[in-house]
Every structure is written in structure tokens, then in C-alpha cells.
Amino acid sequence: MRAVEHPAPLVAGSQGNLQVLENGNWVVGWGEVPTSRNTAPPGSSCSMRTFPPPMSPYRAYRFPWTGQPAGSPAVAYVPSPGAAGGGTLYASWNGATGVASWRVLAGPTPATLTPLSSRGQDGLRDGDLSLPASVAGENVAAQAPRRLGRVLGSSPAVRAP
């Protein structure tokens, strides 16, 4: 049996758990103290998580998961300042884990959108896509393809002023 110590003074009066991962690392939940720690034996810390009040998870686990939101991605178009034209299309799909990139679509009507550009996804970070001045007056939307190209979701079109 081994003891697992928190790097800072910490006292948890109840609950808590330890999960051994496939790679030999451990996930330690500190019970009534809203903190978890991923460690690599013999105790070096890989990561630490502290949950804000009022959250009080009494156990911590690490499992693979996939997030597929029920709704569509959301977009907002923000014109560039000044007379240069163009702007940025911000795309977000909170919780979607399979998004590999963001693809911008543009066209004269929502029914006639065609691909304009794309940008790789950076982890769970949402898309911020620069658009040229040529999209002024067009409808723009974003698609969220997965790695092999299948589209997971498409936003509704918005008008670029």
C-alpha cells in the first residue's frame, strides 16, 4: 500500500478515490475538497484540477468521451474596422469533440452557399475565421467536419454587411 500526498497542505475529511489508468498513471480525487490530480508514479504531478464553488465532486475519474451537441453550431460575423472590408466569422459548437476543422461557406442566398475557406481546429477551441471583403452582402455560414471530412454540423447562415 502507498500513500498519495497532495503537494500543498490539504485535509479531506471524507470520501475520495484513486483510479489507476492504463498507462500506469493515477487519478486521485480528494473527496470533499473539490480538487483532483493526475499523477505518474511515484507521485510526480501531471495535472491538477480545482472545481469552483458550489461544485463539490466527491470522486474524480478519467474516461474517454465524445460530445455531440443536439443543436447546430453558432456563428457571428464581425466586420473589420475601417473601410478595408472583410471581417471575422466566429464559430462555436459548445461541447463538440469530433470537430477537426471549420469550413466557411458563402453565397448570395442561404440555399446557394459554397465553400470559401477552412481552418484547422485547435483542441476544443472554437473557430475564428478571417473573411475577405468580397463576402460583403453575402450570406456566410460554418460547417464542422470531422477528420475524414464528414460534416458533423452546419450553422445557420448570417448576412455579412
**What structural class do you assign from the helix and strand content?**
mainly beta
Largest sheet: 5 strands, antiparallel
Please give the domain count: 2
> How much is the radius of gyration in Å?
22 Å
Overall, the morphology is elongated
Task: Summarize the structure in words.
It contains no helices and twelve strands. It has two domains: 11-63, no CATH class; 74-159, Immunoglobulin-like. A hairpin with a 7-residue loop joins strand 5 (74-79) and strand 6 (87-92). The chain is mostly beta strands and 161 residues long. The strands form three sheets. Strands 7, 8, 10, 11 and 12 form a five-stranded antiparallel beta sheet that branches. The model has no long low-confidence stretch (mean pLDDT 81). The chain starts with 16 loop residues before the first strand and ends with a strand. It has strands at 17-20, 26-29, 35-40, 44-50, 74-79, 87-92, 101-107, 114-120, 127-131, 139-145, 151-154, 158-159.
